[in-house]
Write a structure and sequence with these properties.
Layout (H helix, E strand, L loop, with lengths): L1 H18 L5 H18 L4 H31 L3
């Protein structure tokens, strides 16, 4: 369920960055802030579980940031 949510966020950020590159910065920051808080909270769990939770949230944050950047780069390559 969480994976589907991250994939949906990536797709929405990509499309938003493709259609409105300047306006997509704020939703990207919101998603990044939320996943960053999850990574900080998850990494406080003891042992291996904390390391796994923190890493999963931080990798999800990186994926959403990359998809938004890819949308902006694709917009720059369009002839419009």
């Amino acid at each position: 369920m969480i994976i589907a949510g991250i994939v949906a966020a990536c797709v929405v950020l990509f499309i938003l960055a493709l259609l409105a590159p300047r306006l997509s910065i704020w939703p990207q920051k919101g998603v990044s802030r939320t996943l960053g808080a999850g990574a900080r909270t998850g990494s406080k769990a003891p042992g291996v579980v904390g390391k796994a939770l923190g890493k999963s949230f931080s990798s999800s944050r990186k994926a959403t940031n990359k998809s938004a950047d890819a949308g902006r780069k694709t917009r720059g390559k369009l002839p419009v």
